[in-house]
Design goal:
This protein is α/β, with parallel strands linked by helices. It has helices at 22-33, 50-53, 71-78, 90-121, 136-145, 161-166, 178-188, 214-219, 241-251, 271-283, 299-305, 321-328, 339-344, 359-371, 373-390, 393-409; strands at residues 9-15, 39-45, 60-63, 125-128, 149-153, 172-175, 227-232, 258-263, 290-294, 308-310, 333-336, 352-354. The strands form 2 sheets. It has a 6-stranded parallel beta sheet with strand order 3-2-1-4-5-6, with helices on both faces. The two termini are 29 Å apart.
Length: 411
């Protein structure tokens, strides 16, 4: 942390993501590197757990529960019920009841607690770390307190009326890629002068390409002969675990000693999805090929422990922490040819791109790397050079701090 003297502005960060993933990791990098002579940070998270509680070692941190009533679980139970649709208007009524329950038992308590916290903290600016809709409470608090708000935008939007309203709230947007910037301009009519594209920043010095991957391989009983391919990411349907399993089926008899690793934790909302994936592995005879590692805290060892890193998101990834980290580690990388991955990677120069959602295309890319060890080394080295020049946390932090200063100077 940088220290110093002078008037400090209080920045309140609000994280309302689905789970502990790339968004909160990038936020922690930013907060750790914030110039403490200029800014005092406080981080509020809607969820908690061991990783979230670690934030208290880096900045003021408070957990404000964003969910007292499980509306997502209620929808999962109600939505498949078909007889509701036989009664005209009943589905609409049920959805409205759930929506109002969400407002009353989840949104309102979070909003009031956050407003009280922001007043007590004397926040000068609120930085929402996720999309405007899920962070509407934070943005409305900014409106009530008449302070500027910055909203990170990390994905594609659907352009709905509710989404358009949510996107009218922030003072400024920081999309994580030019692809995301183009999306919110075309779909939600966000003025270009309210947008600053700022790539996420990571503490790349901590991603040592010379670290050993053997502890990770030993933990998961990978031999030196095993060819390990790792899909890194939360177990969420759009992260591409399904097509990863399809590729495993296509390759298990073509690549000797193939091991396909699904690396990442499972959000509470997606426990059923993990069960589905495990059932597929068992039913399709992939038990000797596919390994579920769960959440890992030592990601550098993970990246070095696999021979190839895969990002396989079926929906366009806004930027992709996995892609940045893998590139910084100099690892052979495969990503989908859309969204942020296509913006960050150059095919056959810093990695391999495959047709999004196409398991056969992914399988061909994996096999290409297996057949050409020299290519893995060459593309990995080029990827690291690109990452160090583009995604350093110091560059990210400087751009964010300059934006804060500009907004705080504006009446």
């Amino acid at each position: 942390m940088k220290q110093g003297r002078g008037k400090q502005q209080h920045i309140l960060y609000v994280e309302n993501g689905i789970g502990y993933g790339g968004a909160i990791i990038c936020l922690r990098h930013l907060v750790r590197n914030l110039d403490r002579s200029r800014f005092t940070p406080m981080v509020v998270t809607g969820r908690t757990g061991p990783q979230y509680r670690e934030i208290a070692n880096e900045a003021q941190w408070q957990h404000i529960p964003d969910r007292h009533l499980d509306i997502v679980g209620a929808h999962q139970k109600v939505d498949p019920i078909t007889w509701i649709d036989k009664v005209p208007g009943l589905r609409f009524v049920v959805n409205q009841i759930l929506a109002r329950a969400d407002d009353l038992f989840n949104f309102l308590p979070f909003f009031l607690h956050l407003l009280w916290t922001a007043r007590r903290f004397k926040a000068d600016l609120i930085h929402a770390n996720n999309e405007p809709l899920c962070n509407r409470a934070a943005l409305l608090v900014g409106k009530v307190l008449k302070i500027p708000t910055v909203c990170h935008v990390r994905g594609d939007q659907d352009g709905s009326r509710l989404m358009s309203w949510a996107f009218s709230l922030p003072s400024h947007f920081t999309p994580v890629s030019h692809w995301v910037s183009a999306s919110i301009q075309s779909k939600l009519a966000v003025p270009e002068n309210k947008i600053s594209v700022i790539y996420d920043g990571l503490e790349l010095d901590g991603l040592d390409p010379n670290i050993s991957g053997q502890p990770f391989r030993q933990q998961h009983e990978l031999s030196d002969e095993d060819f390990a391919v790792g899909l890194v990411g939360l177990l969420i349907p759009w992260k591409g675990q399904e097509i990863f399993l399809d590729a495993a089926k296509a390759l298990k008899d073509k690549i000797p000693c193939l091991k396909m690793l699904i690396i990442g934790g499972t959000p509470d909302d997606c426990v059923a999805f993990e069960s589905h994936l495990r059932q597929r592995v068992e039913q399709e005879g992939l038990s000797d090929t596919v390994i579920f590692t769960g959440h890992n805290t030592d990601m550098p060892a993970v990246y070095k422990g696999v021979d190839v890193v895969v990002s396989a998101s079926t929906s366009p990834e806004p930027l992709g922490t996995v892609v940045i980290e893998a590139m910084a580690m100099g690892r052979p990388l495969i990503g989908p040819n859309h969204g942020g991955a296509a913006e960050m990677m150059s095919h056959e120069k810093t990695g391999l791109l495959f047709t999004p959602g196409d398991a056969a295309s992914l399988a061909r890319a994996i096999n290409s790397f297996y057949q050409a060890p020299a290519k893995r080394i060459h593309l990995g080295a080029a990827a690291r050079q690109h990452a160090l020049a583009t995604f350093a946390v110091e560059k990210h932090t400087d751009l964010i701090q300059t934006l804060y200063s500009d907004l705080l100077r504006t009446p």
